[in-house]
């Protein structure tokens, strides 16, 4: 009975930025747990290739859509296409994200806007777009990919830290607004995970050493180590959790 809580049979999950890194790992995991999935990318070929790979390996239905999640009209079309294809959207994972590392005095306005639009504006647009569908279903799971840097800071991450901190606050507001509709909204806050986004840090000996020294477990996390958390947050197992932030960081923020 307890394991039944983690099954996603009959559910439909939409994962932005779901063609690589943590996004792809999460999309694959949700499909393995029984969900049909939609994955997005700015590039149509990448989205469709990722969807085919997930469908072939899991036997679940999968759809790849090209969308710029910072553009409201494209986000609305993405949701409409998803509902047309699968009839519903039960799970939204706002995963698409970007990081630009610069001292604040060197941060040009275009780079600042790019980070804020991708990491904070896009989740707002996507959540707003799925609201009508989830409210009519009286069911939904919205999971915002924040970061441990949404609550702690590192130098040269001014845009990233502020966007991820803002996303945690947006999560709390949506949780309060949508609780009457049986829609939960939570934030998943990974720490140092060995993904493409962090390659520049891992390839810098001094920066890599700083990270390893601050991770209690003494190593970078593996992308698959996020699977347990995302299945929990997307499933009935987390039905009494909303407005929360779950940190998976190897113990960094425990210091």
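-> sequence recovered:
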């Amino acid at each position: 009975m307890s394991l039944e809580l983690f099954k996603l049979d009959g559910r439909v999950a939409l994962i932005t930025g779901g063609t690589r890194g943590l996004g792809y790992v999460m999309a694959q995991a949700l499909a393995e747990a029984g969900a049909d999935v939609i994955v997005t990318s700015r590039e149509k070929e990448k989205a469709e290739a990722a969807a085919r790979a997930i469908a072939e390996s899991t036997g679940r239905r999968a759809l790849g859509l090209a969308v710029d999640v910072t553009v409201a009209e494209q986000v609305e079309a993405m949701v409409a296409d998803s509902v047309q294809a699968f009839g519903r959207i039960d799970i939204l994972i706002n995963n698409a994200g970007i990081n630009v590392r610069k001292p604040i005095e060197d941060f040009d306005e275009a780079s600042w806007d790019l980070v804020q639009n991708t990491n904070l504006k896009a989740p707002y647009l996507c959540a707003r777009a799925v609201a009508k569908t989830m409210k009519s279903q009286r069911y939904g799971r919205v999971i915002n990919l924040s970061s441990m840097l949404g609550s702690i800071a590192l130098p040269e991450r001014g845009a990233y830290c502020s966007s991820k901190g803002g996303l945690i606050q947006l999560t709390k507001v949506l949780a309060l607004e949508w609780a009457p509709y049986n829609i939960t909204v939570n934030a998943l806050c990974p720490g140092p995970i060995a993904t493409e986004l962090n390659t520049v840090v891992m390839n810098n000996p001094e920066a890599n050493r700083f990270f390893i020294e601050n991770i209690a477990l003494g190593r970078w996390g593996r992308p698959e180590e996020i699977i347990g958390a995302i299945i929990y947050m997307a499933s009935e197992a987390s039905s009494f959790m909303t407005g929360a932030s779950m940190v998976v960081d190897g113990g960094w923020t425990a210091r």
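The longest strand covers residues 183-190.
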